């Protein structure tokens, strides 16, 4: 399911840009709405529950109880910090690239590249070609391959590696990026590493939860981290405004928040198994 959203992330931005050029913004939004409507009709007609539903009274206390457990609290807090920064590249990468000299035509492909990447000759950028039909689906692989690796090496271990990788990419590649190639490389690699977080976060909750509580505990986690996703972009915009249109403070904020989340993931692993790097957790 997470991989499917990456495929949508490749198709929809390109689709919207082309429809806006041909028919204007209103019809672009209608086109997206009709596409989603058709997909949702199909999904709702074909989805089946594995077990019969068993309704029970809703209780706020049931959603708050898991936070009393240290491993669960640390996982949610780590995801909260990571979410503060994770979506900032998706929101500001186009504007940041244009600020550093990338053409508008090429910059509009950076979001699809965050979900897919390719490298070959292009008229605007030597040795770089962007065509959706050629794209190896980087973020789709980022949402599938780490899950397979996590089953072999440990979910917490894999999450820690991919989280630190995302942090390094922000601070060591996006922050100093000046020119087209660094932005395209960052978009492709960050799409892979951040895609791993999307697919692995619920798996971490499932690993430390009773199977009967996975739904409630996963919902509690996403309810908490949605706050970070909501306020992260306005904070990023304010940082840009305070710096007179420069993106340096935004990029630093993004990297530092993700670094904090990565460190807390390490603490969550420690709460389960101690500092034993060879243990599968």
Structure explained in plain terms:
Helix 4 (about 70-85) packs antiparallel against helix 11 (about 180-205), helix 4 (about 70-85) packs parallel to helix 12 (about 215-240) and helix 10 runs antiparallel to helix 11 (about 180-205). The chain has about 280 residues and is mainly α. It has 13 helices and no strands.
What structural class do you assign from the helix and strand content? mainly alpha
Work out the radius of gyration: 20 Å
Query: What share of residues are in beta strands?
Result: under 5%
Largest sheet report: none
Number of helices, where a helix is a run of at least 4 consecutive DSSP H or I residues: 13
Q: Name the helix and strand elements from N-terminus to C-terminus, one letter apiece.
A: HHHHHHHHHHHHH
What's the total number of strands?
0
Task: Point out poorly predicted stretches.
Answer: 117-136
Give the terminus-to-terminus CA distance: 24 Å
Mean pLDDT over the residues: 86
Q: Helical percent range?
A: over 70%
Shape: globular
List key phrases describing it.
globular; 13 helices; single chain; mainly alpha; 281 residues
Please summarize what this structure is.
The chain is 73% helix and 0% strand. It has 13 helices and no strands.
Task: Give the secondary structure arrangement, pairings included.
Layout: H1 2-23, H2 25-46, H3 60-64, H4 70-86, H5 88-99, H6 104-107, H7 110-115, H8 138-142, H9 145-153, H10 155-174, H11 180-207, H12 214-242, H13 248-273
Helix pairs in contact: 1-2, 4-11, 4-12, 4-13, 9-10, 10-11, 10-13, 12-13
């Amino acid at each position: 399911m997470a991989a499917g959203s990456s495929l949508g992330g490749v198709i929809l931005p390109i689709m919207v840009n082309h429809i806006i050029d041909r028919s204007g913004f209103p019809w672009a939004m209608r086109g997206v709405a009709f596409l989603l409507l058709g997909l949702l009709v199909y999904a709702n007609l074909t989805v089946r529950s594995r077990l019969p539903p068993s309704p029970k009274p809703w209780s706020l206390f049931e959603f708050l109880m898991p936070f009393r457990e240290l491993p669960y609290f640390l996982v949610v807090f780590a995801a909260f910090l990571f979410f503060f920064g994770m979506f900032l590249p998706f929101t500001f990468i186009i504007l940041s690239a244009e600020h550093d000299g990338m053409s508008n035509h090429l910059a509009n492909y950076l979001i699809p590249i965050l979900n897919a990447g390719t490298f070959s000759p292009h008229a605007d950028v030597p040795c770089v070609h962007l065509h959706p039909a050629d794209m190896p689906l980087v973020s789709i692989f980022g949402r599938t391959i780490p899950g397979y690796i996590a089953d072999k090496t440990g979910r917490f271990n894999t999450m820690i590696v991919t989280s630190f990788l995302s942090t390094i990419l922000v601070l060591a590649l996006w922050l100093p990026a000046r020119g087209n190639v660094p932005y395209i490389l960052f978009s492709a690699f960050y799409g892979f590493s951040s895609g791993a977080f999307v697919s692995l976060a619920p798996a971490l909750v499932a690993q430390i939860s009773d199977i009967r509580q996975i739904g409630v505990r996963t919902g509690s986690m996403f309810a908490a981290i949605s706050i970070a996703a909501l306020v992260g972009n306005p904070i990023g915009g304010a940082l840009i405004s305070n710096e007179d249109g420069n993106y340096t403070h935004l990029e630093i904020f993004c990297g530092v928040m993700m670094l904090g989340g990565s460190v807390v993931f390490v603490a969550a692993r420690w709460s389960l198994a101690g500092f034993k790097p060879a243990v599968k957790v």
